Amino acid sequence: MNIERLVTMANDISHYFAADPDHAAGAASIADHLKRFWEPGMRKQIVAHLAAGGEGLEPLAKLGVERLAELDRKSAQATHS
Amino acid sequence: MLSIVEIDRGTPLVKSDKMVVLEIDGRNISVPEGTSVMRAASQAGISIPKLCATDMLEAFGSCRLCLVEIDGRKGYPASCTTPVTEGMKVSTQTPKLAEIRRGVMELYISDHPLDCLTCPANGHCELQDMAGVVGLREVRYGYDGENHVFAKTKQGETNPHFVAKDESNPYFTFDPSKCIVCSRCVRACDEVQGTFALTIQGRGFESKVSASQDNRFLDSECVSCGACVQACPTATLSEKSLIDRGQAEHSVVTTCAYCGVGCSFRAEMKGEEIVRMVPNKDGHANHGHSCVKGRFAIGYATHPDRINTPMIRKKISDPWRIVSWDEAIAYVASEFKRLQSAFGKFSVGGITSSRCTNEETYLVQKLVRAGFGNNNVDTCARVCHSPTGYGLKATLGESAGTQDFDSIEQTDVVLVIGANPTDAHPVFGSQMKQRLRAGAKLIVVDPRRIDLVRTPHIMADYHLKLRPGTNVALLNTLAHVIVTEGLVDEAFVAARCEPEAFNKWRTFVAQDKYSPENMEAETGVPAASVRAAARLYATGGNAAIYYGLGVTEHSQGSTAVMGIANLAMATGNIGREGVGVNPLRGQNNVQGSCDMGSFPHEFPGYRHVGDAAVRGSFEAAWGVPLHDEPGLRIPNMFEAAIDGSFRGLYIEGEDIAQSDPNTQHVTAALQAMECVVVQDLFLNETAKFAHVFLPGCSFLEKDGTFTNAERRISRVRKVMEPKAGYADWEVTQLLANAMGYPMQYKHPSEIMDEIARLTPTFHGVSFEKIDQLGSIQWPCNEEHPNGTPVMHVDEFVRGKGRFMLTEYVPTSEKVNAVHPLILTTGRILSQYNVGAQTRRTANVMWHDEDRLEIHPHDAEERGIKDEDWAGVESRAGQTVLRARISERMQPGVVYTTFHFPGSGANVITTENSDWATNCPEYKVTAVQVTRVNQPSEWQKRYQAFSEEQQSLLEQSLDAAETP
User: Is the ipTM of this complex over 0.90?
Assistant: First the structure.
């Protein structure tokens, strides 16, 4: 999917959660939101994009996608174990 | 003319705890205090003759036919205006009364045409009935005197009292020669519709009904709701369809397929032909009222444009091949299977529609989840109310409005944000107007001066005319005032809401940056008005918020919905009658399509696909393993299609090529797919890009249920056979079976039974129960066996209410030198959504093209005059519309509707969307407007493509007809 569109969408989400004074909580909420509402292929793509430098992703969105990568890794392990 | 089956008790139902016992014609009856003698008699089974009285209207006491005698009282009081008293003894039939009544009727008939046999009201005319009831045998005055009946006098001179029939309205005629001046039409326009288009002009014998300033109906302020036609006791106001077809012989109760008000109607039928639609007095959402769409605009259902045969084609440049149902279904199944084996399980999906029934929607999502084996299902609520689902779930715990419509009767302060009820939800708009006229205060938050702001006997206390895109900023300023001026309902918040979240929110909105003064430059709303409006909302008694797509269709749609819920919680305006958060849903079944699990991330009842217990219950019931990850949303489907990973789409009752933003992007996505299946009534814009067309059926051709904006589930009943042989739910079932996933429903009631089994909020719902109760508001289960008019009463659905932070993030869609104006979109009373239905009715007489509304200053700067062609250009595209200069707009903001595909309103709108749900930002697009003299390039291409598709269709249909 068009990665620029996904980046914009991730940034939009991060703008909402930026209101939370606790940044770690904000990042966790972003990850949770992505996990709950984004189709897995889109999640994979944004995680890969971050791994490749994450061009265009704003700092809080980056943190959120990082946390998402962890969440997805964990659930993948849970399914395999 | 009243419905052929309803009983008219003469005066409205009165509610009172105190009962009064009286005697009428020797019969004892007990009725609520305040009831009229006429109504009490009717309840005792005694009909008192009447003409000017009807139970939809307050008593008027003008016809003098309903006189009675009461023991101990002098004279002959009118039973309609006389309230009952304890122990009263009433006689309705005495020799004296008979004489008076005959005298009254004699006068009426002396000025009335005697063409009963050829009159459209024949057999159901109240005047005719009363002549019979009173035993009128002669008219001593003759018919030659002064009259309103004949165009010429006996002497051949023009009769000054005669007024010719007005046939200007496309749906009804007004024949003043038959008028008895009972004022029922005038009162219906006032008391039921609230438009005041009709009046009695003149005095005495000169008195006559006139529309506006003695205009033709079509040229008057009349909104063609039909309340006057229904109220008319004679044929003075008659439906043209009744004139054409004659009296109906049976009547079926069903639910309107237009807006989210969900009016109950009686389809009055002659065999399989509809004579007329009459709003149901027992309808819980509409109480016998309707609008021009629901009552009159049903001609689309039998329009010649309907396609009643399945068709397929390999490429969209090919003509269609007319095929049998078997072949079409087999083709779709084989294509979808081929795509799934070549491109993976996730390469196909489906779209459900808010215009379809709950049962149909449920079946499509079941087909996708269980049959296709993925969660790629979405619904058009994606582009309208998905933020409502998200925002209300996050704060209150349930994705639905909190009240019933009647709750407004207890409301003291009405706050309308981003909604235009008099146009988009007209029947509820009428109820709201009546409440405002009775004294409730009104705050309107809208960039435009909608009609409600200033309409007869209503003036908004505050119109906060904000800049488009600043809803959240404005909501935060309202919250700021409430918090900093100590207007929070502390007791409510302490008892009902999460304290930590509330404290965080309190600190957040109290920030200086959210003071009305500091936000004034951003929102454009004077700080003093914001402060005053906030005080009124917080302290004016029961305050209720009504909102629409002006809230949701923004980049911060979900944030705004949460901001609204925060306001209601902070002021304790939730959990009882008269208050609450009320999303006005656009289409008839937006609520239902969302409830039915149409969203890619949740099962019916708003439960996430990742929830193992919930998924387990569906796996057990459906007999297949289900995917535990969210699927693609509609805009994601488009992206994936352009990408090549999404290839097949089953669309039931939606027209994404017209309704979704950035048309050129949408059509590129459709063209990138290999199997687009459209199930619809017409070759709609999307079908022009389809490979398979499956004929759908109108709401008149199937059984099922719709759920309106109040969570009210009402029955849709089949009044005629499906034109193409199958109801929509049957088509989905055929497709599922062909895909190898068996479905064996024999009737939609079995589908509802399955929904009820699997969805806790629907446990108590069944067709049988809906038939019994008339309608049911969910949750309906063991705890609420008869449904739930008001939600969150003792506690919120999620337990404690949760305040959410609502940072204002300005949209990235900003005005600049290239695009200095903001375009916002909306709709109009006479048309509905993409117009596929209403464009195919006489409603085009009110609105036959989409116009660009522009403020005089902006127009003058550009040299644009009324009616000029105006080019509208955004970063997404360009289109051309005719200009309408209007001071309803604020300078800098232009507006259009999107009812006609050739207007290309969505060629202009962009891919910007709500951060949480991807609901498009339809309401804010930066544009430039210039004077032009020809259609845009897109419009020329559209025209050519459309003509080509139409000709391919006609070739195919012609070929099929020639043996």
Answer: yes
Q: Is the pLDDT of residue B569 over 60?
A: yes
The dihedrals phi and psi of B312, each to the nearest 5 degrees, come to -135, 160
Q: Which B-chain residues 326-355 have CB contacts (< 8 A) with chain A?
A: 346
| Angstrom distance (rounded) from CA B923 to CA B387 | 14
Q: Which of A12, A16, A39 sits opposite B631 (nearest CB)?
A: A39
Q: Give me the half-sphere count of Cα atoms (radius 13 Å) on the Cβ side of residue B837.
A: 24
Three-class HEC string of B725-762: CCCHHHHHHHHHHHHCCCCCCCCHHHHHHHHHHHCHHH
* Position B586 confidence tier, pLDDT thresholds 50, 70, 90: confident
CB proximity under 8 Å: B 536-555 to A: 555
DSSP H stretches of helix in B489-611? 490-496, 499-510, 516-523, 527-539, 549-552, 557-570, 590-595
Domains in chain A, number: 1
Asked if residue B833 has pLDDT above 90, the reply is no
Query: Which of A11, A35, A39 should be substituted to probe chain B, the one whose Cβ sees the most B Cβ atoms within 10 Å?
Result: A39
DSSP B147-181: -SS-SB-TTS-B-TT----B--SSSEEE-GGG---
The SS3 of residue B64 is coil
Q: Which two tokens stand for residue B267?
A: 């389809």
- CA distance from start to end of chain B: 47
**Length of chain A, please?**
81
Determine contact: B640 vs chain A, CB below 8 A. Answer: yes
Name the average pLDDT for chain B.
96
- Percentage of chain B beyond pLDDT 90 is 97
Domain residue ranges of chain B, discontinuous segments joined by +: 19-134, 172-302, 311-382+590-743, 386-583, 821-909+933-945
Residue B480: alpha-carbon gap to chain centroid: 34
- B172-302 domain in CATH 3.30.70.20? yes
Nearest-CA distance B13 → chain A (Å): 49
How confident is the model over B312-336, as a mean pLDDT?
A: 97
Q: Distance between CA B624 and CA B373 in Å, rounded?
A: 9
Into which CATH architecture does domain B19-134 fall? Roll (3.10)
Half-sphere exposure of B42 (CA within 13 A, CB side): 22
At B644 the three-state DSSP class reads: coil
Class of domain B821-909+933-945: mainly beta
Query: Which residues of chain A fall short of a pLDDT of 50?
Result: none
Shortest Cα distance from A9 to chain B (angstroms)?
6
| Distance set, CA B374 to CA A17, B120, B378, B626, B633 (Å) | 30, 56, 12, 7, 12
pTM, rounded to two decimals: 0.96
Rounded distance between C-alpha atoms, residue B825 and residue B552, angstroms: 13
